[in-house]
Queue: 3 jobs
Job 1
Amino acid sequence: MVFTGLALFTAFMLVVIAVITVLNVLTFPRLNAAPSPKETPFVSVLIPARDEAAIIGETIQKLLAQDYPHYELLLLDDHSTDGTAGVARLAARDDPRLRILSGAPLPGGWMGKSWACHQLANTARGDILVFTDADVLWEPTALSRLVSEMHKRGSDLHTVWPTQITVTWGERLVVALLAFVIVGYLPVLAVHHIPWPVFAAATGQCLAFRRAAYMAVGGHAAIRASIIDDMAFAKAIKRRKMRLRLVDGAGLIRCRMYRSWAAVRDGFAKNILAGHGSSIPLLLLSWAFHWLLFLAPWVWLMTGWLGGPDGWPWQPLCLIGLGVGVRALTAAFSGQRVGDALLLPVSVILMAIIATQAIAWRLRYGGIRWKGRVVKG
């Protein structure tokens, strides 16, 4: 009876995820669907950067190639040791739209990125503030499309989920799961139309605020200690009954977050515990839930020939088909490799390794390790 109950629970949850996925594929707005903007308010594009010399040159060149007519580009060099500012300056070729700031020392109680963004916002002149990461690449029409989307949807905070560039196996099996979570777990219609903060979502890779909305929620000073600052902003916008909107980057805004398994592991470990309310028991419960949904059916299929509960092999095959099908559909929607869906059990195991890294950091350091800093909490 226990086994049957677990199988029914697994089937029910997979069907729920499948329904959310299909609805999102049909309703999730895409950046390339927006026409050119009729209004062109002054935009400040703001980049916090720490030791990003390897990629900042291409990022700056692409941002300075935007067809939007009315913007500035600000880069804050957060005490880099690899010549990030110099590379950015060379890439800009004296373009006056780029200004490079030197970061002030990090005060107590602040996350490094939030402090950098706070300094950028205080210097920016734009009516729209676009915070974007140093590894996010913008195609020439992307900024125009973003401003047009903001005007069309009347958003106070508009966030774009970049198309993820995945090359190594670690990226393909873990980074691609971002689309799985966003499209499979997050009902975008609820995010757009239900005011409850539980339906808040955003990505720090691209956050576009109307300045008045940014100031109304207190800016980065209000979320200074938050590890997942994007979610903190999304919830703050919801609490103030302002308009939050999500859009898929559709290849116009792209990002390669990490370039090795070690970088993927540490990067995801940085956020995974905070994403579970900084609760180790809740993270372990999530771990068990995902093993039940996406790994246990494979174990049942492979061992069922030894005997046991009825329903083998068709029941585990149906459960596997649901899980792999959802993963494949989210991959197709987000520009990832559909065939990698067959390796979903490996992805689940890798996420368990990442969770273990996060727990180890918490127990050893009391927080996370990132870019040479230990962040408590």
Job 2
Amino acid sequence: MSEEKNIDFFDLNKRAVSQPLVTDNYSADPSAHVFDNKIYIYPSHDIDAGIPFNDNGDHFGMKDYHVYLMNNPDDNVAKDLGKILDIKDVPWAKRQMWAPDIAKKGNKYYFYFPAKDKDDIFRIGLAISNSPIGPFVPEQNPIEGSYSIDPAVFDDNGVYYMYFGGIWGGQLQKYRNNKYNIKNDLLNDKENAFGPIAAKMSDDMKSFASDPQEIIILDENGSPLLAGDNERRYFEGPWMHKFNNKYYLSYSTGDTHYICYAVGENPMGPFYYAGRILEPVVGWTTHHSICEFNGRWFLFYHDASLSKGVTHLRCMKVTEIFYDEEGLIKTIYPYRNK
């Protein structure tokens, strides 16, 4: 198992701005939503699958999902309400149930999740329930035209959009114009960076109502971020929220370990890079969600402090976020200085 070296985890946990929400299980990639004035969290469920570490993330061998409940974000404890979906119940899925999301429309709950199909290609699946805690019944096939990982669904006054995509193990680099080619690879540093993919959802929430299209993230001069701009460019984990009538696209930079964000006037972009939300955490990955609760805004994220740095055994956390007078998000440092 890969572990962080030379870290005093007792000291680190004392300095952390938040503590693990769950300590009897490993959980990551928390997708938090408010339903009926309570916070429901849908993370991925980390396990030690016994698979060696590699850059494709094969050691992230998750097989099921649980749902967690918080009465309010100040509790700092999330209650496990049980398993809601298992890979053995999804006809098309072979392995690796990574970061999910959920959306409510009418009286139904639509749970979206990535998994590799029988050909080891990531697709995005759907399971539906009449309750936020299930039971969720999976569709027989993945969403047509879906690919890669990290679905995030955004409700813009009754119009729903899905954002998705991650490079490296998430396979986004294998696509051009929604077409897969195994010969495709990462971009040259001076080419425009990959952006997340977005599509409008159909009325029944089961398919795309528009062709997926790439979201462009621009720098301060209005030029697309470049693939070599590792501290700002998109890597994975898109999330969308709206604040003061502006759209905030936040995401992970992957190998540089930041949660960054860009701001736009339209849910399909373009978006202008605006800064960092979260500085690096212990553990290789960083993945988040943002939700509002009673007028306050909260960042749900994870680190690997509970497992003492084992990168694929993570724990979800929450901390409040704040905006300045210009609507910029104040950067969060996950561990206080000594």
Job 3
Amino acid sequence: MKSQPKAVILSSGGLDSTTVMAIAKQEGYSIYSLSFNYGQRHSHELIAAEKISNVLGAEDHLVIDVCLDKIGGSALTDNIEVPKNRSGTIQSRMIPVTYVPARNTIFLSFALAWAEVLQASDIFIGVNSIDYSGYPDCRPEFINAFENMANLATKSGVEGTLKTRIKTPLLLLTKAEIIKKGIELGIDYSITHSCYDPSSDGLACGYCDSCILRKNGFKKAGVDDPTQYIT
């Protein structure tokens, strides 16, 4: 019997990365979940990521410490206020202060290293260029550039024993389309966590960019929002 192909899945515990993990599972991959404790104010997401990896049957779930709070420069890792109640138009026009410098580049680099050790060709990431909050490292140009770099930067890539592919199944989907896909795959979105500025017990604020995108996504998808909000 042919063994399942392995895939490293970047998991934040959020709606998008959970949907990506479910897609990878549906496609027949053996799942290796990777999360990061990077000094984020919304570290409650790591609890969700652990739960999701168990529910979806991941072979392993690594949490790697990367102290991006020592660098700062983001409302997620520094003493900067998280924006609230921003309109969708404003969200799409500018890179917000919740952008964490080089975060996806750093995360994908760790994923690349683990994938090479696992001999996994595929790395899944839940980036999205439609309903996203202006992040430059969620664009197709970035993903293509990183994939090209990955195949030049690894022993397996240079020797031709393994070709790395960065898989982005949500890249061109709206948040509503992502939610509908996840519902088809049987995802319980109540166990996911998206808020940038949650309460100490993990309740979503309901007003940050991520919460607004999530709320609007459920509304447009015609699906009840299972998120627990502060108010």
